[in-house]
């Protein structure tokens, strides 16, 4: 997750948190600053005093390789705005034959329920869609709610596995040229239950 993307998500979730309490557009006393202040307070009330796990601690959970595909780069993000904090780590895995895996571990506990709804709205539903070129479905993985998808274009395959852990962490794995079993095995190696205990 790039820093700019994290800030964009934070702003969007803050505005969403206003809901029906946001001032009307034609109010003479309403300002964007007041609206954002209301949004911030709404999120703080939902989240409480939650300190995110550091990006460095999240990085320690990344494996050195995934299915024989070595890690080549790591990005860490710690973003704060309006008194709220989120942190994330991104591991990039690549092979010279074109196979790629990306693992993202995000801690959005400081955003409360609003943050989870914005970042993983799929976790609130159940669905199973299958086409001639792939599928997209929700389910359970090691006791956690997940969404997985697979799409094929000729010989090219793209897989995704997203997991909500401890109602505050989101783990996302994306593969190119690898099947779903590779992502599932990688997710097992992340010790999801240990991550949940960090809540």
Cα Rg: 18 Å
**Order of strands in the sheet with most strands:** 1-2-3-4-9-8-7-6-5
Biggest sheet, in brief? 9 strands, antiparallel
The helix/strand class is alpha+beta
Compute the number of strand runs. 9
Number of domains: 2
Q: What's the overall average pLDDT, rounded?
A: 79
* Unreliable parts: 1-25
Q: How much of the sequence is in beta strands?
A: 35-45%
Total helix count? Answer: 6
- Assign a percent range to the helix content: 25-40%
What is the terminal separation in angstroms? 21 Å
Topology order in helix (H) and strand (E) letters: HHHEEEEHEEEEEHH
Q: Name the shape in a single word.
A: globular
Key terms:
199 residues, alpha+beta, 2 domains, nine-stranded antiparallel beta sheet, 6 helices, 30% helix, globular, disordered N terminus
